[in-house]
Amino acid sequence: MMDKLIERFPAQLIEALEIGEAASISAAENEINKVYVAGLGGSGIGANFVASFVRDECPIPYNVGKGYTIPKYVDKNTLAIASSYSGNTEETLMAFDAMKKTGAKIVVVSSGGKLIEYAKELGLDYIQVPGDWPSPRACLGFSLVQQLFILNKLNLISNDSILSVKSSIDLIKYNQEDIKEEAKKIADFLHGKMPIIYSTSRMEPVAIRFRQQINENAKALCWHHVIPEMNHNELVGWKDENENLAVVYLRNNDDFSRNQLRMDINQKIIGKLTPNIYVANSKGKNYVEKSIYFVHLVDWVTFYLSELRGVDSIEVDVIDYLKSELAKV
Fold first, then answer.
1. Closest CA to 79 of 7, 154, 18
2. Is the pTM value of this prediction over 0.85?
3. Does some domain include residue 255?
């Protein structure tokens, strides 16, 4: 099932673009000087990507929250986005309730549930995405595309990132077989080892996505860190030889030159302590295209890894159990 969902990612992006273009977002009553997004898991990761996509263009801060509460700075001059695929995420609903009391410009992104119900009752702007996908983490395209359109329709960004999403569709469709082939190699490389993911700080959303997909799809633990920050702490932790550790570097040909140098030196240092190092290089003309290319690659990696581990890539029984226990209180 998960492989079918990953296969549909290009089609999902096309559908997401159509939904975003047709969406109606009313003008804010007050000047917007910051953005705050509440969302967790598969619904929250889209905001991480958007924050990185618009960093060099959006003139105001774009912050992401992944919890029950919202910061004090959320006020009438804030664009507050509540993102939950199901519309029933406990933390996001509580954050949404807090948003209502601030006078913020609220926009909901969801497939339904209580969030859409509340948005309709209160006359708030909302974008409703299809609800027939069985796994929220497979709906990244819906989440990130709608947030880009919200910013665009409120004149906070141009349509450059949206156009880059459009061009990325052909990129991943054209390279589909090569992506699958490399994904199988990386899955084989990671199987039976502890995965470690390193990227530049700008590419951290991809590293987070990779880590989360290994957790949920392959039912395995791993960790990630970013360069240059890890050069100031984690690098010192590489002290003992350990052949059970497998490091994947996510690299781009246009990474900042000093970060490229840092990665080169990193690989030399770590290569003395584990023989398991894999360098994955992105494809694409710009940051958005490279990110979406990597997303498609790592999603396939984690599916193939789930097959090697003999686990069901769809089930999240332990999360369902957690929710049922929380519901008792």
1. 154
2. yes
3. yes
Domain count, the chain: 2
Active-site residue flag, 121: no
The answer for 157, left when phi > 0, alpha when psi is -120 to 50, beta otherwise, is beta
In-domain check, residue 137: yes
Output the tens digit of pLDDT for each of the chain's 329 residues. 899 999 999 999 999 999 999 999 999 999 999 999 999 988 899 999 999 999 999 999 999 999 999 999 999 999 999 999 999 999 999 999 999 999 999 999 999 999 999 999 999 999 999 988 778 888 999 999 999 999 999 999 999 999 999 999 999 999 999 999 999 999 999 999 999 999 999 999 999 999 999 999 999 999 999 999 999 999 999 999 999 999 999 999 999 999 999 999 999 999 999 999 999 999 999 999 999 999 999 999 999 999 999 999 998 889 889 889 998 98
Residue 13 lies inside a defined structural domain of this protein: yes
Give the residue among 251, 248, 270 at the shortest CA–CA distance from 187: 248
Q: Is residue 78 located within the same domain as residue 226?
A: no
- Supply the range of the domain harboring residue 239: 175-309
Looking at 232, 239, 325, 328, which residue is catalytic? Answer: 232
Catalytic residue among 76, 268, 272, 323: 323
Whether 216 is catalytic? yes
Strands, E, within 229-326: which ranges?
A: 245-251, 277-281
Decide which of 150, 167, 184 is a domain's last residue. 167
**Does 323 qualify as catalytic in the annotation?**
yes
Pull the structure tokens for residue 157: 């960004």
Kindly state the tokens that stand for 182.
């490399």
Q: For residue 240, what is the domain's CATH number?
A: 3.40.50.10490
Which of these is catalytic: 216, 224, 290, 296?
A: 216
Asked whether residue 17 falls in the same domain as residue 156, the answer is yes
